[in-house]
Design brief:
The protein is of the alpha+beta class. The chain has 3 domains: about 110 residues, Acyl-CoA dehydrogenase/oxidase, N-terminal domain (Butyryl-Coa Dehydrogenase, subunit A, domain 1, Orthogonal Bundle), CATH 1.10.540; about 110 residues, Butyryl-CoA Dehydrogenase, subunit A, domain 2, CATH 2.40.110; about 150 residues, Butyryl-CoA Dehydrogenase, subunit A, domain 3. The longest helix is centred in the middle third of the chain and has 37 residues. The site of flavin-adenine dinucleotide has 21 residues, from β1, β3 and α11.
């Protein structure tokens, strides 16, 4: 993909390559034009707006993780992050929705055959949406407790079970679903499958009503004797946990990127408020040292989070281990989004707490980034596990 725009030097991040700067400019312009004007309305209604995904397809950023040989843009990880930060700045729900295409593309990159990639990536490139269904009512952090089963019957796998909190899966065309092919083996019995929404026995259950990212689609999936071809198994039987963990390594810095976007938006809103809002002496409250130091602390956190994300992704793109750095970036950036958005609400007083401001949405949206793709408690288990190996 070749964005034609020139880079605005005042806005450009000079630590990025020129191509990455152009993508950043493209995503920033898209966010300003298509996302920011409607984000509050979507949030209020809690409705999923597919049209924006059609718009994002027009600029070629709807399936950034799909390699060029399969018709995608084949964006490197830092480029994906830079774009997702901009989309997170506009609306974390939209970024989460688009993130589903990335999250569900990664298992294919890890374990997909050429035929499986043709199928899966082909659907995404054509404008379809992808989902990743690992979580179940009794299996969140402990994915090995998965109760969904897959049994081989002739040349078909037969899937039975219930998935929950599956992002975009109510509207997705194709998804990666995890099921146990041998429950007696626990995590070693977990396997990953490609499931298309048209399969008989596949249906969407309850839609979650959420505190934040309200316009993203989060649903329960019901699988009743869903028959899928034998060659829809990703990798080998029993490799599901390995595939899921590698996928989450890839996805965590992307969630962290969205969180940086949320935090940057909160910081920008707080700075604008501090410049415009006058204290009892008629001076902008930003001239009070207590306020200006708070803004400085927020900026330190946002920039540190951004650089931790870039660090993890540069390691990934260099092909070296990055599990610990991905978990560190996810934890720090999402904790930053929560802290900085809460600080922005506090700094803006009753206006910050009101629906008239945008920062209360940022605070509600930030919370989920600490929970999905592994809670920040689980990230600490990952980090400690890497330290103590
Ligand atoms: C909006 C939203 C979208 C989501 N989208 C998806 C999706 O697309 N696909 C998908 O598969 N899942 C998705 N999830 C699920 C998400 O990944 C899980 O919620 C998350 O992994 C935590 O699982 P749980 O909610 O079952 O919490 P639990 O695992 O039940 O944990 C409850 C609490 O206990 C803590 N805890 C658990 N184990 C430990 C431990 N060993 N040590 C210390 N603390 C621990 C947790 O940190 C948490 O605070 C989504 C969730 C949300 C809220």
């Amino acid at each position: 993909m070749k964005p034609k725009r020139k880079v605005d030097e005042k806005m450009a991040d000079m630590t990025l390559t020129h191509e990455q700067q152009k993508l950043q400019a493209l995503a920033r312009e898209f966010t300003a034009k298509h996302i920011i004007p409607v984000a509050s309305e979507w949030d209020e209604k809690g409705e999923f707006h597919k049209f924006i995904l059609e718009e994002v397809k027009n600029i070629g950023l709807h399936c950034m993780a799909v390699p060029k040989e399969y018709g995608g843009p084949g964006c490197d990880s830092v480029s994906q992050s830079v774009v997702m930060e901009q989309f997170g700045y506009g609306c974390c729900a939209f970024a989460t929705t688009l993130g589903g295409n990335g999250l569900s593309s990664y298992p294919l990159a890890i374990a997909g055959t050429d035929e499986q990639k043709q199928l899966y990536y082909g659907r995404l490139v054509a404008g379809g949406m992808g989902g990743f269904a690992l979580t179940e009512p009794g299996a969140g952090s402990d994915a090995g407790s998965c109760a969904t089963t897959a049994k081989l019957d002739g040349d078909k796998w037969v899937l039975n079970g219930t998935k929950c909190f599956a992002t975009t899966c109510g509207v997705a065309n194709i998804m990666v679903v995890f099921a146990s092919t041998d429950p007696s083996k626990g995590v070693k019995g977990l396997s990953a499958f490609i499931v298309e929404k048209e399969r008989d026995g596949f249906s969407v259950g309850a839609v979650e009503h959420k505190m934040g990212i309200r316009s993203s689609n989060t649903v329960e999936l019901l699988l009743k004797n869903v028959r899928i071809p034998k060659n829809h198994l990703l990798g080998n039987e029993g490799e599901g946990m390995k595939i899921a963990m590698k996928t989450l390594d890839m996805a965590r810095p992307i969630v962290a990127s969205m969180a940086v976007g949320v935090a940057q938006r909160a910081l920008d809103a707080a700075v604008a408020f501090a410049k415009a809002y006058l204290d009892v002496n008629g001076k902008p409250i930003g001239m009070q040292q207590a306020v200006s130091f708070k803004l400085a602390d927020m900026a330190i956190q946002v920039e540190a989070a951004r650089q931790l994300v870039r660090n993890a992704l540069r390691l990934k793109d260099a092909g070296v281990p990055y599990t610990k750095e991905a978990a560190i970036a996810k934890t720090f950036a999402t904790d930053t989004a929560m802290q900085v958005s809460a600080d922005a609400v506090g700094l803006m007083g009753n206006y910050g707490y009101s629906k008239d401001s945008f920062v209360e949405k940022l605070m509600r949206d930030a919370k989920v980034t600490q929970i999905y793709e592994g809670t920040n408690q689980v990230q600490r288990i990952v980090i400690a596990g890497q330290l103590l190996r």
